[in-house]
Amino acid sequence: MKKIQISPSILSADFSQLGNEIKKLENGGADLIHVDVMDGHFVPNITIGPPVIKTLRKYTSLPFDVHLMISPVHKYIKNFADAGSDIITIHPEATQNLVESINLIKNLKKKVGISLNPNSKIDLIKNHLDRIDLVLVMSVYPGFGGQKFIPDTIKKIEKLNKIRIEKNLNFHIEVDGGVNFSNSKDIIKAGANILVSGTTIFKENDGDIKNNISQLRSM
Known about the structure:
By secondary structure, the chain is an alpha/beta fold. The chain has 8 helices and 8 strands.
């Protein structure tokens, strides 16, 4: 079993204090910083772009785990790489040529993630699992924070984990959407090793970030 990592989503942070919020996450034991990028087209919300990521880069040495929910995504990959992203995760539906987009991210010396929406089949990415670093399983339909976890996600995590074991692959399984104290154990048991959480980390236990990260990580 890979080490359990926590990637807090700054979507739930105080956007007027993002730099300080990121410092709190690092001090609280976060492993990664999850950055949701939405374009109002591929998903029904708009968040931040490369200039903000570049500005935030100076506040932490933690890897930036950047989830691009934008379409078409290919022409923007370099901008996000140059801004300081460490992991760049894209949706197969958002690019005309998934192989080209994977190669571009790799050529830019960044880690490659592919995200699956709740209605996206594993078959979409099955032939690419040996070339990527991470599969991000969305356990809500992306666009807004604070949504409830979709229970069927557990089956998808289990299937991905089975493929990973049977084919002796090394990709991470990351889960994002409604992750909280009541379901984190089941998510980890199913095979996930990176948990993305926003509301739980920033809001639970009176905003005790360190305690919330620790609780999510423990099985």
